């Protein structure tokens, strides 16, 4: 897996030229040829279904119906399940979707940098409509949720590989490369030069941790004692919820099970968050070392890194780090010479589903299923992967744990504030001169971050992504801390020129796109909300619609199955409360008007009858 | 209530409906005599008044399938203090809305051109005819509606209950047996 | 744990329930008295491992539900059975009963929420009751009656969901699917066939069948399957038996879905019983119809 080799690319691209050879083989044989090696690599393990499907699509371009037959037979899975899983993940396709699949990142920060114009330009150059496959089957162009390149956008994915810093010139060049059918592996390397943009280092980003040193400290200090250090450090989960890491590890250790598992959540899907990408790129050893520590403490011999599909360009690098650690006896059997210390890490890829950042959905996905959040309790610490005790922690949490193992809990606890210890890495993007990564001790004010990143004339900051909180100028003295402004890391800056209604609308669309569809309120409610925001955007809002949005918000918060539904209305509520004028100018109508365009609803009839008289038209609102 | 009380003015109409709801309304039978003590009818199939004047209550049967339906609905909304959606079609589009999964072009094509036995078929284009909407909509998607009486048709008792509740100044409620969607 | 509703990318809530000792309250007779909770003020006994809805049903108290079926593992997706347990919203079909818990169900607040959820289900699909064979026996419809849903309220999605009439004896009308997964669970867990599955995501979630052709006729489906008999709405329909039971005699014509001594709020507002005959429309049921008050009465 990883970036496709030129040889494999060539093989795939040549399939249209060898129709005769395809016709001669039976359909299943054709697919068995590339599927069997994939299946062998995964030991025909049905839990790896998602990984197998991703690899199958990499090879063939989409998941062919005959391929499903073969997988169904080989994995002893009903084809309905395979189709159901394929249908869940937005990067998987059950129909041909072009040899080049271009997805423009559509976070608000990409919008602010003009991604829509660039996409339109590429579409017109290549004669294709967004969301459709070109007539010759060569390509498709669409949007996708935030790809985590907000500090170097606008960005896109081509066959799931990231390209940053799109400009008109770059888009023109890409269009030309596609027209010329140049394999993606042969495109200019500079297109794929993803930057770390580390702007402020503190204990973590400046640690230069020597691989193995934290493990050595663990072995020297003792397992129990190291857990004690983690408890002493008061480290809390860095993925947003802030649960005590030491407590989680302890619960997992104490939970009965045949196996224990350690999972690193690198499904960094929260719009505006990209710190884990940088950590995995430059600090992977620290992350893996933290996982290995955890494994020793909870008694796990197997771990997973769940890497979001958008970051798959990091896969080869991460595999190399893992391999190097195995060679250094930091991973695998007899770690650092201890016969009872065995642990290895497998990387699983996501495939375009934000919900898999929710830990129980992530576990479902690891098990090769649709990423639907489980009913909790039981929690993963007792019933996680394959119903066994499982720790799921964020990338940054594991990296921090390595530091604590090395330097001790008291050292760590002394940093930050009384309630929030240690440091937090912020991914800063939007309207500022120096977007990128900023690591601060907890307690830093919003104003300080804004000053450091060179933000001017700032109107608002969206902290912790779409599901986070929108901070207005009068709150800039508030602190980044669990008891003030908690965050998973996103810090999107909006200056006075930005329309905060459009910010909220972008996030609402994001939630509707990412709702897993399991529970009624989120499945239907996020789409209803999305439609209502569109109605306001088109100038057809009235106080009635406003009241409806507030009602919907209350319902989603009280009845949704998981955090996605609970937070889907946050951006709207925050911006209504803090940027009311942005809404007021949309409430152009005194009374209710329809959401759909009545005159447009007559256009088909006009076309069919050739009429254009006054009776053939309708006003949208009644005067 | 005594006879001195000013009578409430009520208008009714059927849009994309079958008049079944109106027939059900008439099924209140002898209670109609009680009703006319309290109300007088404006535009309605009962009166043959062609346009709706200022009213207390407007009752709409049927959904919106064409431009004229929209005009009539708006006329009612503009003139009636209280607007009631009467029956399945007004409430959720009903039977006519079952065309909504087809494109209007395909429907017109099928009906006026492709259907077996048609010779030189053409799609009527007289400006007198209202143009069909691409989808059939329930009325609450186009104007604000105050009350709904579901059913295909709603029973006379359901209609009676809602009207008498309203006349008594109560929030209308239908219990088991009176509320039904079929 | 912070109270912020930040989308929990970590294990929100784990410590909370442990810390509150909830896991220890489940059905354990602390002081040799049977464990109980109160539901709208009524004391409900329960045994270890029972969920709120199981205990409530055993005690004859109705909590509205659609995706819950006592014969299957609870799912918790429709959210109709939402109650407030110790002040917090939760699905009563998945929430284990705990001693001393205070549960609210039949309140205006919760019924308003349930009504909105029902309205969402109605606008999401194409639910045209007058032409549906399941009408009168449909749990979605009956629950909406129970909760007093007078209109779908929201704008309709009017999705295009072609039906599947390929099977000789059964019809699939996906227009009415509410994604409760009961057929999926029945086919998988009881029939061992996996005839049904969910595909898609979000508002595009949809039911599929286990056949390359996508047709029911090409699956192992049979009328004998449990899955043929669990659909709470009118998706999985046996052919040639529709409308056999006359209006007035169908399941929920006879009595409301609650059918408990604890009627819902809508039923509570019914006027007293008739003194004389009332005109009965063709679709009315004389036995259960309330009287029409005279104008003077109101």
Describe the model.
The complex is a heterotrimer of chains A (623), B (182) and C (298). By secondary structure, chain A is α/β, with parallel strands linked by helices. Chain A has a six-stranded mixed beta sheet with strand order 5-11-10-14-12-13. A four-stranded mixed beta sheet of chain A has the order 2-1-3-4, covered by helices on one side. In chain A, helix 8 runs parallel beside helix 9, helix 10 packs across helix 17 (395-407) and helix 20 packs antiparallel against helix 24 (570-578). The radius of gyration of chain A is 25 Å and the shape is globular. Chain B has a domain at 8-100 and 135-167: Rossmann fold (3-Layer(aba) Sandwich). Helix content of chain B is 31%, strand content 20%. Chain B is built from six helices and seven strands. Chain B has helices spanning 20-26, 31-38, 67-79, 88-92, 104-114, 156-167, and strands at 8-14, 39-41, 55-61, 64-66, 80-86, 132-137, 147-149. In chain B, the strands form two sheets. In chain B, strands 2-1-3-5-7 form a five-stranded parallel beta sheet, with helices on both faces. The longest helix of chain B is centred in the middle third of the chain and has 13 residues, at 67-79. Chain B is elongated, with a radius of gyration of 18 Å. Chain B starts with 7 loop residues before the first strand and ends in a 15-residue tail after the last helix. The relative contact order of chain B is 0.19. Chain C has 298 residues and is of the alpha+beta class. Among the domains of chain C are: 21-106, Ubiquitin-like (UB roll); 132-238, Alpha-Beta Plaits (2-Layer Sandwich), CATH 3.30.70.20. Chain C has seven helices and nine strands, in the order αββαβββααβαβββαα. Chain C has helices at residues 14-19, 52-58, 108-124, 139-147, 182-190, 251-254, 265-268, and strands at residues 36-39, 42-45, 82-85, 88-91, 102-104, 170-172, 196-199, 206-209, 236-238. Chain C has a five-stranded mixed beta sheet, with no helix packed on it. A two-stranded antiparallel sheet of chain C has the order 6-9. In chain C, strands 7-8 form a two-stranded antiparallel ribbon. In chain C, strand 3 (82-85) and strand 4 (88-91) form a beta hairpin. In chain C, helix 3 (108-124) runs antiparallel to helix 4 (139-147). The longest helix of chain C is centred in the middle third of the chain and has 17 residues, at 108-124. Chain C is globular and about 55 Å long. Chains B and C meet through helix 2, helix 4, strand 7 and helix 6 of B and helix 4 of C.
